[in-house]
Amino acid sequence: MTQTKLEVPAELRDLAEKTIAQAERAFEMFFDAAGKSIGTVPGPAADMSKQALTLTEQNIKTAFEHARKLVHATELEEAMRIQSEFLRSQFTNAGEHMKTITAGIMSAASKAAEPKS
After folding, report:
1. Assuming Cys at both sites, which of 2, 60, 61, 79 could form a disulfide with 73, CB separation 3.0 to 4.6 Å?
2. Neighbouring C-alpha atoms within 13 Å toward the C-beta of 20
3. What are 33-89's pLDDT values in tens digits?
4. Where would I find the Phasin domain in this sequence (predicted)?
5. Count of CB atoms within 10 A of residue 78's CB?
6. What is the dihedral of CA 35, 58, 16, 82, to 10 degrees?
7. Would you give the DSSP letter of residue 7?
């Protein structure tokens, strides 16, 4: 089977890299502000919000890494492999995130059910 080249001009790849970097910086600023905001809220809701924010941040970082890899793909088969690996890792991560979130919910529920002294 022959490799299908992706004919993407260097200028377009450079533009895509710059756009990814700008978007990544914007999300970093958002997550920084959101983290500070969550830090002002006391209680178990804050813990779960921090956890959700951390998982979301991990997902966004993974998406940016994926975008960078795709920008540098030079063959269609390579782009398809990168996309396949990304989807596989996303399914795995989603399962792990659900376990983490479920454990947090269960922990918060058992703390809430404890008698107050």
Report:
1. 79
2. 19
3. 999 998 887 777 788 888 889 999 999 999 999 999 999 998 999 999 999 999 999
4. 20-115
5. 16
6. 180
7. -
